[in-house]
Amino acid sequence: MRGAWLSAARFVGCDFRGAVVVFSYLNDVDFIDCNFDGANFSNNNFERVWLERTTFVGAELTLLHLKGSRIESANFDDASMVRASFVGADVRKTSFRRARLADAFFDEASFEGCDLREAVMTYDPKGEVGGTARGACFTACDLRGANLDRLRLNGARFERCDIHGTVGTPDGPYAIVEPDPFAPSPGMVLIPQGTFRMGISATQAQVWAESLAQDEEEDEWDVMLHPLREATRDPEKYLVYLREAVPDRIVMVEPFFIDIHPVTEQEYAAFVRATGHRAPPHWKNGKAPQKKLALRPVTEVSLDDARAYATWAGKRLPTEAEWEKAARGGDGRLYPWGEAWGDGMMSEYGDDPETQIRGEHAYGASPYGCMDMLSFKWEWCETRAAPYPATPWDGRTHGAIELGDAWVLRGGDTIGPGPGTMVRHFDVASARDANYGFRCAK
Question: Of the candidates 156, 183, 210, which is a domain's last residue?
């Protein structure tokens, strides 16, 4: 289509894939559920056009003018939109992932709920025009990884946007009017949306229990600390724990942030001072341990204590599924660090000031960089205790979990070199055990 002039037209469900449109003028035209994937647009003027659920994936849209247009739920992923104009446009829930928007005009435009991840929105001074976003407003948009180098932002506003990881140096003043409530606090890491394999199969549980029993070695000190490790060569004592992680299944988890480290004595002390909340029982005279001990994970906290801290910090506790994904990643590994057990990978916290503090085992980190996900300390989760969905072949004859007010804890290793990232523990919300701690999510 060349030199076309259309006004007050409406196109619904049309397929324009690969179309070539040059030097055309469209005024008050609607495109609903249309497909322009791979199309080639050059020097076109679309004023007050309405684009709804219309796709331009991989299209060439050079010098496309969309002044005053409304664009909703459209897709411009991987499109080339060099020197395109969105002046005064109303753009909602539209994706521009990896789109080339170099030297484009965004003046006075409104972008709401749009995905601009890895979009190139740069300005080349040699071009002399374009690359402006004066007075534009971006609301609840995702700009992670976007390139804003020299984009002239005079007066642009970013409200509740995620601008972490943007590259380049924008030119001119701009305002982040309201911070993103979902942006991470310092010391947190993003766990992306996606599926992972949660739990273990009945066959895996049996194999691992037999392997653990066969590899038992008598260690007087170890047995004193962990009676379960007495070398009886009986796999049943391991199966008691492993059966609660049966069956394995694919679980979808929405994106969330989680603390890299468990909450420390020092961090919990700040909460106690600020709120007057009760101190853990092991604090002498209600005062937190000092020096190196202050950097160990806080313990002897109940679920209610952990919740109170999380609320004070503007966070929450992770669910059981969130905790396990942060520990295992998406590849179904047995341990945070990989498939094989390794001495020294697991964090151990004792009463000696010279023992490990949090995060000292960097080589024991999870795929997302979370530290100390497997230790002798259990971490509270915001999930009520209940058996995993049973199937006739999962090997369980009964659920060993007492329901009532029992809640899930994860990450404590009571059975030696076994699948600790999958082992579950349960206790009442009021329990304040010497091995109970927590980390936060949001």
Answer: 183
